[in-house]
């Protein structure tokens, strides 16, 4: 079975990054103390320096761009379904030459 991803809250991330930047503790020391992976801590510091606090917010599951993520349209009504099917039939008739 695969490893499950653990999610950390903003407070924990901020504490870890502050220990590194303000208290000048090492990555390994902080990671051991807070029981997190060194690579995760390194990534948090890099994101904070590049994007500020916004960089520490959770990004997983957030669709970006047009046409990504779940559709926000309502279920198809009977009328719209009928119109769509009639248009499909007309198109098929045109291609079949009827």
Q: What does this protein look like?
A:
This protein has 98 residues and is mostly helical. It contains 4 helices and no strands. The chain has a domain at 8-59. Helix 1 crosses helix 3 (38-51). The protein starts with 9 loop residues before the first helix and ends with a helix.
List keywords for this structure.
54% helix, mainly alpha, 4 helices, single chain, 98 residues, rod-shaped
The total of helices stands at 4
| Global morphology | rod-shaped
Q: Largest beta sheet, briefly?
A: none
Radius of gyration: 25 Å
Count the E strands. Answer: 0
Query: Into which percentage range does the β-strand content fall?
Result: under 5%
Instruction: Return the structural class.
Output: mainly alpha
> SSE order, as H and E?
HHHH
Helix content class: 40-55%
Give the rounded overall mean pLDDT. 84
Q: How far apart lie the N and C ends?
A: 57 Å
Which ranges are low-confidence, i.e. pLDDT below 50, for 5 or more consecutive residues?
none
Question: What is shown here, in short?
Answer:
One of its GO terms (molecular function) is transposase activity. With 98 residues, the chain is mostly helical.
What's the arrangement of secondary structure elements?
Blueprint: H1 10-21, H2 27-34, H3 38-51, H4 78-96
Biased composition (Basic residues): 58-67
Keywords: Plasmid
GO molecular function: DNA binding; transposase activity
């Amino acid at each position: 079975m695969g490893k499950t991803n653990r999610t950390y809250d903003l407070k924990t991330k901020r504490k870890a990054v502050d220990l590194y930047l303000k208290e000048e503790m090492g990555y390994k020391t902080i990671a051991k103390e807070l029981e997190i992976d060194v690579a995760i801590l390194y990534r948090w510091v890099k994101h904070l320096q590049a994007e500020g606090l916004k960089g520490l917010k959770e990004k997983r599951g957030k669709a970006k761009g047009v046409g990504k993520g779940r559709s926000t349209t309502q279920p198809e009504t009977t009328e719209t379904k009928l119109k769509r099917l009639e248009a499909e039939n007309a198109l098929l008739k045109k291609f079949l030459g009827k």
